[in-house]
Amino acid sequence: MNAVVSGKQPSFKISQRRSLARVAHTFRASALLFALICGYPILSHAQSQSPVTVNDASSQTGKLADLGSLATVSGVVVDQTGSLLEGAQVHLTRQGQALAPDTVSGEDGQFSFTGITPGAIKLEITAAGFSAPAVSATLHSGEAYVAPQVVLTIAAQTTTITVSAGMPRVEVAEFQIQDQEKQRVLGVVPNFYVSYVPNAISLTSKQKFELAYKASVDPFTFVGSGALAGIEQAADELNGYGQGMQGYGKRYGAAYGDVVIGTFLGSAVLPSALKQDPRYFYKGTGSKKSRILYALASPFICKGDNGNWQPNYSYLAGNFAGAGISNLYHPASDRGTNLMLQTASVRLGENALSAVLQEFLFRKLTRHLPPSER
Fold first, then answer.
1. Domain residue extents for the chain
2. Element of type H or E holding 121
3. Angle 285-367-360 (CA atoms, 0-180°, nearest 5)?
């Protein structure tokens, strides 16, 4: 679900304590996630060199001359967002024959080969589900060749959509949405607002509203709202609604209303007006640090319908507007500017944490991924 449901306490102090507790819980979860993600030991690898034995001065001179004619090859690999790409496979060949053992790009996206004889070379760089055009060059004696920056894109052979030359973009986007609407964490929780296709076609206004409707009427949305209403009633939150079936019904309506209003405002109405894409675009490449920062920035930065990154006005305005609208139907004791700001701020934190989980956990648990991601 794209919107986060948040209940309120019957008084400012109780609501403040509850908001602080939720924030603390969010930060504890983030700290645990960071420990799990970043706690791997760093392995070092030392290469030993065997001493070169020479028999006489002339032999040594000849070998030094040969070494001086050898060249080096290096470069940097990035993904489509411009982030350094770690773990890409790099092959160096000449006329189909390997010139050196394959290597992989490091955490800084860099790769290098040394001791390469002069002549024509071909660089081929790939990663799972990604590819890039081969780079060809001619090495000169003793040259330190730096390849042009290599940008890996989604491999053409992994697409599952047959696109004819005249197929409208809206139809391509519709195919991609159909794949998204099958995505569920553990096969149950809808994961509709995550795109695993980094260059997915932007959505039309109609498609944005259809996706918001799909998320709002999903069975899990009703079940989740009911569970939240039960928890609030058991804790006597929103006590202005009272108890019994009538109180539960009011809490249920408020919980479901929060979800639907937040989803339509932040994912359909404002994205349509501001021409922004409401989806989270899974990164999945680069260093752990770059992926964490990318996820934490997602509530504040989004893709525009033009494919460019820009401030996420749609989510930010929709989040605060949704919190403000909830003042109209929540009990009087759970209204007010301070409570609205606290609720909106907590939702921002929850959204950022959810994005981090999307990067490192939810993809592994999501079923019915697009065929190219399975």
1. 12-38+157-373, 69-154
2. strand 119-127
3. 30
* Eight-class DSSP state of 95: T
Q: Does CATH place domain 69-154 in 2.60.120.10?
A: no
Q: Can you give the three-state secondary structure of 194-219, one letter per residue?
A: EECCCCCCCCCHHHHHHHHHHHHCCH
- Cβ atoms within 10 A of the Cβ of 309, count? 13
pTM, two decimals, is 0.57
Distances in Å between the Cα of 247 and the Cα atoms of 225, 233, 254, 296, 343 are 14, 8, 11, 37, 22
pLDDT digits (tens, 9 = 90+) for 254-305: 999 999 999 999 999 999 999 999 999 999 888 999 999 999 999 999 999 9
Q: Is the pLDDT of residue 52 over 90?
A: no
Q: Are 363 and 282 in contact (CB under 8 A)?
A: yes
Residue appearing with tokens 């940097």? 76
Q: How far is CA 118 from the centre of its chain?
A: 42
Give DSSP secondary structure letters for 355-367. Answer: HHHIIIIIHHHEE
Beta pairing class for 194-195 and 280-281: parallel
**Token pair 């007006």 in the structure block, residue:** 273
Sequence length of the chain is 374
In angstroms, rounded to a whole number, what is the distance separating the alpha carbons of residues 334 and 8?
6
| DSSP letter for each residue of 299-350 | TTEEEBTTS-EEE-HHHHHHHHHHHHHGGGTS-GGG-SHHHHHHHHHHHHHH
CA 112 vs CA 6, 77, 127, 147: distances in Å: 51, 11, 17, 10
* Residue 80, beta-bridge partner list: none
Q: What distances in angstroms separate CA 216 from CA 222, 256, 279, 340, 368, one per listed residue? A: 8, 9, 15, 22, 20
How many CB atoms within 10 Å of residue 247?
A: 18
